């Protein structure tokens, strides 16, 4: 009696797995792998939180913040809508903004050192 229930659960799990594999934004497409690779940028941004703020690049973090938030919008416009791409780009933009705040705060608190750096 438990065999039919087991095979029904197995069939449903296989069906869900097949649906995931064959989804328009599934692992057989770039829509899946591009966000996975982009998490490396988020990891690098989080790692940079341990760097001194005077060693951070303003232009690099402006670029990260801008592209992150621009691509969040794009992720909701494309078909298929790519929520994983939107999520990773939100975090890319957020890490860029966090670093820009750290730079601004360091320059505000250390005006002499900031002026000597330029």
Would you give an account of this structure?
Helix content is 78%, strand content 0%. The mean pLDDT is 88. The chain has 118 residues and is an all-alpha fold.
What characteristics describe this protein?
118 residues; mainly alpha; 5 helices; 0% strand
Beta content comes to under 5%
Any idea what the shape is? Answer: elongated
Order of helices and strands: HHHHH
pLDDT < 50 runs, ≥5 residues: none
Helix content range: over 70%
Q: Which value, in Å, is the CA radius of gyration?
A: 22 Å
**Distance N to C terminus:** 78 Å
H/I helix tally = 5
Mean pLDDT over the residues:
88
How many E strands?
Answer: 0
Class by SSE composition: mainly alpha
How would you characterize the largest beta sheet? Answer: none
Helices and strands in order, then pairings?
Blueprint: H1 2-21, H2 30-47, H3 58-77, H4 83-109, H5 111-117
Helix pairs in contact: 2-4, 3-4, 4-5
How would you concisely characterize the structure shown here?
The protein is mostly helical and 118 residues long. The chain is built from five helices and no strands.
